[in-house]
Design brief:
- By secondary structure, the chain is mainly alpha-helical.
- The chain has one domain (3-86).
- The chain has 2 helices and no strands.
- Helix 1 (3-42) runs antiparallel to helix 2.
- The longest helix has 40 residues, at 3-42.
- It is elongated.
- The N and C termini lie close together (6 Å).
- Pfam families: Bac_export_3.
- This is Flagellar biosynthetic protein FliQ.
- Its main location: membrane.
- InterPro entries: Bac_export_3 (IPR002191), FliQ (IPR006305).
- Keywords: Bacterial flagellum, Cell membrane, Cell projection, Cilium, Flagellum, Membrane, Transmembrane, Transmembrane helix.
């Protein structure tokens, strides 16, 4: 295995990680921002108010994006398995 091949595999892994994690993280960021804005506008400073809507939104987005996420991870695993099978 050459150094450039290892870097290509690592780069592909990082991009796959970003594709898998980004949708859920963006949903959590959006919900957190919206609730923070509502808290700032209404001056309700309850710290636990943010957790329940964010948890519901993250779990809902996981259910929605799970096919896409498993497709991305499966494709990455196929590419790695092909590299192993062909010997690099």
């Amino acid at each position: 295995m050459t150094g450039s091949l290892i870097l290509d595999i690592a780069r592909d892994g990082i991009f796959t990680f970003l594709r898998v994690g980004a949708p859920v993280m963006l949903v959590a960021l959006g919900v957190g921002l919206a609730i923070s804005l509502v808290q700032a506008l209404t001056q309700i400073q309850e710290q636990t108010l943010i957790f329940v809507p964010k948890i519901i939104a993250v779990f809902s987005s996981l259910l929605i994006f799970l096919p896409f996420m498993s497709d991305a991870l499966g494709g990455y695993m196929r590419r790695i398995a092909e590299q192993i099978a062909t010997g690099g």
